[in-house]
Write a structure and sequence with these properties.
Blueprint: E1 5-8, H1 10-14, H2 23-34, E2 38-42, H3 47-54, E3 62-65, E4 70-73, E5 78-81, H4 86-95, E6 103-106, E7 115-118, H5 126-133, E8 138-141, H6 144-147, E9 154-159, H7 161-164, H8 166-173, E10 180-187, E11 192-199, H9 204-215, E12 222-226, H10 232-237, E13 240-243, E14 257-258, H11 266-274
Parallel strand pairs: 1-2, 1-12, 2-3, 7-8, 12-13, 13-14
Antiparallel strand pairs: 3-4, 4-5, 6-7, 6-9, 9-11, 10-11
Helix pairs in contact: 2-11
């Protein structure tokens, strides 16, 4: 089958190490669209964080954000949502009370409160990232669990791997485990890991499946490009899974294709080799 849809991760994939979309990648995406190939950006970022980057692409694309919790177009129209129920989020935060300084609740709202953390948050966790990159979105509260009055998109635990990785074991033993899905994003060069806690069954792969079926596209007509553990389900669903040259080594599975690294325009190379 020929490729009719290309699903592309952002960080570590479409974005280079300077967090830019290269001109080669932009041209390749435009060429794919001109060949009637649909392009979907599939990212762990929240919608409002991804949109400014996606707006640099010289064609209309749809977005799957927050690791599959939201599907929207570049105009902001929500096409599908799968948020973490409020009570489930509260149980997660209760189980991970010792990790509250590294915990975030993400909401699909504009501006202030989009990113909500507890006021004992520490700089070596997400507080440092959001203070630097999205201070207008950051809300600090006395008790993150008690503040939840609506369904968040997700709960996120972030920080140095050695400090936060035990949180997964705690969740595996917690009563809430059967009602949630967890996924990791690990940035090996910066010693940062992110544990995303999503609604049960929510993933990039499931959202891609929902969108593809809505468009009448078969898995064998999809190329997915990614580099990290949160891309796993998306890569497994696609008929043509492509790993970036800078991918996490443990992510590789037999038969999967590799392209160049994100600093070598790996997305452009994959589109040129397998789509155009």
């Amino acid at each position: 089958m020929s490729i009719r849809l290309v699903a592309i991760d952002l960080d570590g994939t479409l974005l280079n190490s300077r967090r830019e979309i290269s001109e080669a990648n932009r041209r390749a995406i435009l060429a794919a669209v001109e060949h009637n190939v649909q392009v979907v950006i599939v990212t762990g970022r929240r919608f409002h964080s991804a949109l400014p980057l996606v707006s640099q692409i010289p064609s209309l694309v749809n977005l799957i954000t927050s690791n599959g919790a939201l599907i929207a177009n570049s105009s902001g129209e929500v096409l599908h949502r799968d948020f973490l129920p409020r009570q489930a989020a509260q149980q997660v935060l209760n189980a991970l009370r010792d990790y509250r300084p590294y915990s975030v609740a993400i909401f699909h709202i504009p501006g202030y409160g989009q990113v909500t953390m507890q006021d004992n948050a520490v700089p070596d966790g997400p507080l440092g990232w959001y203070t630097q990159n999205s201070p207008h979105c950051l809300r600090l509260v006395p008790d993150l669990e008690a503040t939840l009055d609506t369904d968040p998109i997700q709960v996120m635990i972030g920080g140095p791997p050695a400090g936060i990785e035990p949180a997964e074991t705690i969740l595996e033993k917690a009563p809430i485990r059967s009602s949630i899905h967890v996924t990791w994003t690990k940035y090996l060069t910066t010693n940062i890991s992110i544990l995303d806690v999503l609604n049960r069954g929510c993933s990039k792969g499931r959202a891609l499946k929902i969108w593809a079926e809505r468009c009448g596209i078969e898995p064998g007509e999809i190329m997915a490009v990614g580099d990290n553990f949160n891309d796993l389900e998306m890569l497994q669903y696609a008929g043509l899974p492509v790993l970036m040259g800078n991918h996490c080594p443990e992510l590789h599975q037999p038969g999967w294709t590799k392209t160049l690294a994100n600093d070598e325009d790996g997305v452009a190379a994959a589109i040129q080799n397998y789509v155009l």
